[in-house]
Please model this.
Amino acid sequence: MRKLQMLLLFSVSCSVPMLAQTDKGELFGGFSFERIAPGCGSDYRCGAATGGPATNLNGWTTTLTGYFNKSLGLSAQVTGNYNGTAALSYSTVHRYTYQFGPTYAFHVRKASPFVHALFGGVTQNSSADQSLNYRRFMWTVGGGLDFKASSRISIRPVQLDYERQKVPVVDTGGPTPIPPVGVNGLRYSAGIVLHF
Model:
C-alpha cells in the first residue's frame, strides 16, 4: 500500500508542472457522499452470502485530469470517506479509494458535462472490527457537470458515480468460509474545479 501511495504522489507531482505549461488540465476538489455496504464483520452474521446493509459515509474527493485534446483526458481520483457504521456490529469504518482512467468532456458554452471510467483500489479501516479492514480492487463509472465561473475556475454541482467492488464476508455460523461478494455503491460529489 505504501508503494502505491508513493507512486500516486510521484505521478501527481510530475503531472502538475506539465499541466501548468500546456493549459490542458484541471484539479477538482470537494465534498463526497458515499453509500455502499462496507462488508460483513465478525461481530455479527450476514446470514446469506451478502455484503451486509449499505451505510452512508461523508468525506472528500480530489481528481487531477490531464487532457490529450479538448475532450479526451486521463484522470486520477483519490477519495476519503469516514464515519460510516457497519450495520448490526456498529463498527465505524473509514474508506480511501485511489483510481485512474479515461475521461471524456463535452463543451457547450459555459457548461461541460463529462463521463469517466475509473479503475483502482479501495482501502477500508475499522478500529473496532479487524475483519472490516481490507484492500480490494474497485471500478467506477459515472460523470458530472461543470459550469465555468471564470477562465480558471468552474463549479461542479454534481458528480454521480456507480461503484463496484468485492467485500469480505465473515459468517461465524458455518464450517466453510464464504468468499468475498460483490457490492454496488453510489457516490455524490460537488466542489470547485481549477483549470491549468
Remarks:
- The two ends are 30 Å apart (CA to CA).
- The chain is about 10% helix and 60% strand.
- The first strand starts at residue 25 and ends at 36.
